[in-house]
## 1
Amino acid sequence: MSNPIYLALDVPQLNDGIDLVNKVKGHVGGIKLGLEFFCAHGAHGVHMIGQLGLPIFLDLKLHDIPNTVAGAMQAIHVLEPAIVTVHAGGGRAMMEDAKAAAGENTRVVAVTMLTSMDERDLARTGIEGSAHDQVMRLAQLANDAGLDGIVCSGQEVKAVHDQWRDGFFVVPGLRPAGSAVGDQKRVVTPRQARDHGASVLVIGRPISRADDPARAARDIEATL
Ligand SMILES: O=C(O)c1cc(=O)[nH]c(=O)n1[C@@H]1O[C@H](COP(=O)(O)O)[C@@H](O)[C@H]1O
C-alpha cells in the first residue's frame, strides 16, 4: 500500500521547501502545496517541487462562480496535479464545472468544513447544527456534483466513508499524540484517521516544524 502521508509545504522560502522535501522524501507519499506556497511561488514553484518526483496536491480551495473556477482549473492543467481542492460551499454547478474542466488524471475534492472550525464558529457563519451534519450535507452535494471526494476532519471521515464507499477522502487537522494543536480544532491522530477511512493524511507543522523532520515523518509513518 502506498504511503498516504502528504506533507503540507507551508513554508515561505522555496529553497527551504525544496530542502524539506528532500529530507522527508522517503517517508511521505506526496506534497501538498497550498495558498501560502502558491501565492509566493506560483506555477514556477509548483514545477520546481514537482521535479522532486512526488505527486503534487494543489490545495487552492477554489471558490468563485462556475465560469471562473473552470478557467482556473484549465489554467493549472499544465502543472498536472494529482489532487486539487475547491470549496463545497461554491455549490453544485461550480463543482460540476470544476470537475469537467480538470485534467483526466486530477482528482477534484471539495473542502467541507475547515478543521480549524468548531460548531460555535459554524454558527457564527449563520449555519446552526453539528459539524457532522454540515460535513455529511456537503459530502452529499460533492458526490451529486460528480467530484472524486471531499476534505473533512478525522472526526467525520468514518461516517462519510460509510455513505460514500468509493470516495476519496483527504483528512488534515492531524496531530500525533502529544503534539501542539495550534489553530486546528477538530483533531485526531494520523492512525485514527487512517483507520476511519482516510485516503490521504495531510500533515504540516508536526513534520515541518520538528527539529528533525525526517525522523518526525518516519515516526508518524511507523504508527500507521
Ligand atoms: O484543504 C486542506 O488541505 C485543509 C483543509 C482543512 O479543513 N484544514 C486544513 O488544515 N487544511 C490544510 O492542511 C494543512 C494542515 O497543516 P498543519 O495544521 O500544519 O498540519 C494546512 O496546509 C491547511 O491549509
Note: The pocket of orotidine-5'-monophosphate is lined by residues 8, 10, 34, 59, 85, 111, 114-115, 151, 172-173, 182, 184, 202-205 (CB under 6 Å).
## 2
Amino acid sequence: MGRKFFVGGNWKCNGTSDEVKKIVTWLNEAEVPSEDDVEVVVSPPFVFLSLVKTLLRSDFAIAAQNCWVRKGGAFTGEISAEMLINLGIPWVILGHSERRLLLNETNEFVGDKVGYALTQGLKVIACVGETLEQRESGSTMAVVAAQTKSIAEHISNWSNVVLAYEPVWAIGTGKVATPAQAQEVHSELRKWLHENVGPEVAASTRIIYGGSVNGANCKELAAKPDVDGFLVGGASLKPEFIDIIKSSTVKKST
Ligand SMILES: O=C(CO)COP(=O)(O)O
C-alpha cells in the first residue's frame, strides 16, 4: 500500500495577523502536486486558526499545535480537542519536543493526549525524537521506542496518525540529520511498529522527518524509502515551503 507523502508546516509561536495573511496568500497562489500525491497541513498558533481556515485553499488542511489531555472544563489557558473539532480543525500536533522539554510533558501525558484527541475525531501528528546527549550516549532507539510505545498504547486505529521523527539536536539549529541518519531511525521505527503493532500498520503509517528541513536539503531526504514526508518549522514560514511540498515528486520517480 502506498503511503501518501505528507508535508506539515509547524508555524510554532510566530506571526502577526498581517504576516499570517501574507503566508496564506503565497500558499494559495502556489502550484503544487495534486492532493492525490501529497497531503499538506499547516499549523498556525491557536489564535490564528479561524483566520487561516477562512482564507486557506481547500486542498490544504490545518492542524493545531497542541490540545488538552481530556474534555474541556476548568483548565485555564487550555484548548480542548472538542473545540478544535467544533472549529472544523482536523489535525493536531502532539508531543512536540518543545513541549516535552520546555513544558515537561512526559511520555505518559503525551500518550494520554494522543488517545483522547483520537477519540474526539482529531487526526494526530505525534512527535518523537532524541536529544544530542541521548544520541551521543547511543540511546536514540531506546528513547524513540519508549516515546512511540507510550503513544501506541493509546491508539486503536492508526489510519489517523502520522509519526514525526524530530531529533531535538536538529530542530531550529540548521543541523539537519543526514538522509542516512533519518532513514536509519525511520526504518527502525517501522520495524518497531511491525513487531509491536503489526505488519499492516508498519507498512501504511507515514513516518515523517523534522529538523532543519529546507528547500535545499528536502529532495535528498525525501528520496529515502522510509521518509514519508516532513514536519517543517522555520522554512514553513517562507516560500521555500513550496519547494519542500514539491519534493514529493521524488517519490514518484523512485
Ligand atoms: O520542530 C520542527 C517542526 O515541528 C522543526 O523545526 P525547524 O524546521 O525550524 O528545525
Note: The beta strands are 5-10, 38-43, 60-64, 91-94, 123-128, 161-165, 207-210, 229-232.
## 3
Amino acid sequence: MITISNLTKYFDEICAVNQVSMEIPDGSMFGLLGTNGAGKTTLLRMLAGILEADSGEIRIDGEEDSFSPQCREKIFYLPDDPYYFPNASIQVMLDFYKKQYPELEMDAAVYMAQSLNLDQNRPIRTFSKGMKRQAFLILALCSQTKYLFCDEVFDGLDPIAAEIMKNLFRQEMKSRDFTILVASHKLRDLEDICGNIAILHKGGVVTAGDFKNRAEHVRKFQCVFPTEADLDSLRNHPAVLRFHEDARFITLITGGNPGEVRKALEEQNPIFLGEVPLSLEETFIAEMEGAGYDIRKVLQ
Ligand SMILES: Nc1ncnc2c1ncn2[C@@H]1O[C@H](COP(=O)(O)OP(=O)(O)OP(=O)(O)O)[C@@H](O)[C@H]1O
C-alpha cells in the first residue's frame, strides 16, 4: 500500500503539489485526474523516487525511504515521453530492463508485442507515437513490478489499442499483486478502468474516492410540473445538486437518498417524471459543482 501524507513540492515560487494526502490500496487501479499543470507528473515523480519532496511523507509498503533500492525495484515509472537508447528496439530495452527488474517476463513481452503487431527488433525511434506507447506499456507490464505509475497512459493509442491495453492491465491485476496509478487529464481514459479517482487542481486534491460507488446515489430526473407547483422548494431542496429549467421541462441532478428525492418530486404532482442514467462524467460534475468548484476550470 502507498500512503502519502501532506506531500508538498515547490519549483521556486510555484507550488506544484500542495499538502497532498491519500492512500493507494494494494491491487487497485487508481486514477489521478487533473488539467495541465495540476501537479500529476510532479506527484508521480516524487512517488517514483525521482524527485525529492520539500515536505511531507511517502510510505511504500510501510518503507519510509521511497528512494531506497527496495522501493525502486518495486516500481516501474512510465513517463509520458519515456527514454530509450538511440536505435534501441523493444528487444534491446527488454534486455536492459531485465537487469533492473530480474523478474521481467521475456516470453510474455514477446507474445504481447506480436499480438499488437509490433516488431520487437525494429528501432523504437521508427515507431509512431501510439506504437511507442504500446511498446513501453508492454515493457512496463512485463517487468513484473508491484507498482506501475503511468503518465497519460493511453495518449496516442487508437481505440482498439487502448481497449487491448485496458484488458492487459485487467489481466495483470487478476493474475498477481499489482497496483497501477494512472495520471490523465481525460476522465474518459480513466472512467472504465479506475475504481478510485483523485482529482488534482492547482497542486491540491479536490476530491477523491470510489466514484462508481458514489454514482449509485446520484440520480438524474427529468420532469414536467403543473404551473402551480412549488418549484422553489425543489430548487432549494438539500439533495438537489443541479436544477435546470428549460421552459416547463426540468432536469434535476440529485444526491442523498433517492427515495426521499422522488417523494419530494411526487409531492409537486408532476405531469411527467422520469429517471435517466447518469454518466460518471455527470456524477463528477454534479459533485464538484455541489462542492462549489467551477468544473470547467478543474476538468477539461
Ligand atoms: N522542473 C520544473 N521547474 C519549474 N516548474 C515546474 C517543473 N515541473 C513542473 N513545474 C510546474 O509545476 C506545476 C505542476 O506541473 P506538472 O507537470 O506536475 O503538472 P501536470 O498535472 O502533470 O500537467 P500536464 O497534464 O500538463 O502534464 C506546473 O505549474 C509546472 O509549470
Note: Residues 201 and 267 are 40 Å apart (CA to CA).
